[in-house]
Amino acid sequence: MKRIEAIKIISRHIKEKDMVFSTTGMISREFCDIKDRNGNFYLLGSMGLTSSVGLGAALCSRRKVFILEGDGSALMDMGTIATIGVQKPKNLTHIVLDNESYDSTGGQPTLSGKVKFEKIAIACEYKHAARVTTKEQLEKSLNSFLKKNGPNFILVKITGKSSKSVQRVKLTPAELSKRFALFGQRS
User: Fold this and answer.
1) Are 107 and 161 spatial neighbours (Cβ–Cβ below 8 Å)?
2) CATH T-level topology, domain 3-185
3) What are the φ/ψ torsions at residue 131 (nearest 5 degrees)?
4) Tell me: the pLDDT tens digits for 30-89?
């Protein structure tokens, strides 16, 4: 499936009170285009930090927290996968969209084709993990995992390049921080 298709499916499972942290580049652009809301925090220019920030939020909140990152970002911060497993936030779902490339910077290949992220997540003591390749498998995993305590991990194999028509996130980091802080104050 294409990344945009996966993001649309994931977006349907995000409730208004949930927090979502998405990585820099095309994932945040496409996610913003599909479901921009105050509970989204786009980590602009911060590749490799999405899981760290999402973990911190999950440990400080009772809300459901989604981490949405690419394979390049996950590879840059593999240590946080271990930390998530040790901390065991029940409210965390970690999703890696894997196209085996750094799509946002020109499509250079990553090493993710040789890495079994879902097995790493289980070895690091995530409660549930899956590798999905179809829309139906993604839907099934989300329906199942979001009813259970986490941490949960889903590796989504995706294909294709991003849409050229997707705009950059228009909010500045300061604007993102302010609206997310206001969102966090709501019960």
Assistant:
1) yes
2) Rossmann fold (3.40.50)
3) -115, 125
4) 998 999 999 999 998 778 899 999 999 999 999 999 999 999 999 998 999 999 999 999
- What does the H/E/C string look like for 77-127? CHHHHHHHHHHCCCCEEEEEEECCEEHHHCCEECCHHHCCHHHHHHHCCCC
Q: Which helix (H) or strand (E) holds 20?
A: strand 19-22
Phi, psi (deg, nearest 5) at residue 184: -65, -25
Distance in angstroms between the alpha carbons of the first and the last residue of the chain: 36
pTM of the entire structure? 0.93
| Closest-CA residue to 72 (of 39, 111, 44) | 111
Structural domain boundaries in the chain: 3-185
Lowest-pLDDT choice from 39-43, 86-90, 108-112, 133-137: 108-112
